[in-house]
């Protein structure tokens, strides 16, 4: 599937880049990279091709006190892996974890090592949300036996969960290439307890888990929260990310109405993660 890459340079960067990110996230864009001068946003062409970033966001505001330049280009499916490989740097999650690609030298790497070949999937650990979710996994009091990883992407969180002691991990993604990538990366890391499934939340309804991981955008999380609350075991943990600091209160309010209690909030570069307990 082709992706649209939208690059926006905006002066001043704050607060306008964060406002623009929020609007793009609500209109089909699913992954973002912060740059020195603004943002890059990525979305499936089939989801964003009817969305005009000029006429449907703050960029249309002639009276706002900012100057913006933007460029959009199509990234063909067959080129997505090459794009990632060209700039895949080692990711260090404090002293806990190092996420690397096959071509990185392993001798100097610290902590748990997870080798990822990203192909066309998101979730290499470079994004703040994956980084926070990885950190939270290492700081759990204990690793539950059964884990659900929704929106698994490359499978990196599922792999970390198995390496930390989980006995059964169900990794779900709506994209078939993410499922294929998760299977390949699981084998690459000698993981044997990860079941990768293509589909949505209905694929796992009726099952129960001691830990649920969901690093997805805010609107999907809001739709899924009732199902997460139902599938989560008593005293289980729900880790959410994929949203901004400004979205935390709304998500916590919904979660609390479903019997989930806020345990802690993680923050990194205006992004947030929430740890909830049932």
Uncertain parts: none
Number of helices: 8
* CA-atom Rg in angstroms: 18 Å
Q: Structural class, from helix and strand content?
A: alpha/beta
Q: Percent of residues in helical segments?
A: 25-40%
Shape: globular
Mean pLDDT across residues: 87
The first-level CATH class of the largest domain is given as Alpha Beta
Please provide the ordered H/E string of secondary-structure elements. Answer: EHEEHEHEEEHEHEHEEHEHEE
**Total domain count:** 2
Instruction: Report strand order across the widest sheet.
Output: 10-9-8-11-12-14-13
Number of strands: 14
Description:
By secondary structure, the protein is an alpha/beta fold. It has two domains: 3-75, Alpha-Beta Plaits (2-Layer Sandwich), CATH 3.30.70; 128-277, Vaccinia Virus protein VP39 (Rossmann fold, 3-Layer(aba) Sandwich). Helix content is 28%, strand content 33%. The protein contains eight helices and 14 strands. It has helices spanning 16-25, 45-48, 80-86, 128-138, 156-163, 176-188, 218-231, 248-257, and strands spanning 3-11, 31-34, 38-44, 67-75, 91-93, 97-100, 112-115, 146-150, 168-173, 194-198, 209-215, 232-244, 261-268, 271-277. The chain has a seven-stranded mixed sheet with strand order 10-9-8-11-12-14-13, with helices on both faces. Strands 2-3-1-4 form a four-stranded antiparallel sheet. Strand 11, helix 7 (218-231) and strand 12 (232-244) form a beta-alpha-beta unit. The termini are far apart. The mean pLDDT is 87.
Give the tags:
278 residues; 8 helices; seven-stranded mixed sheet; four-stranded antiparallel sheet; alpha/beta
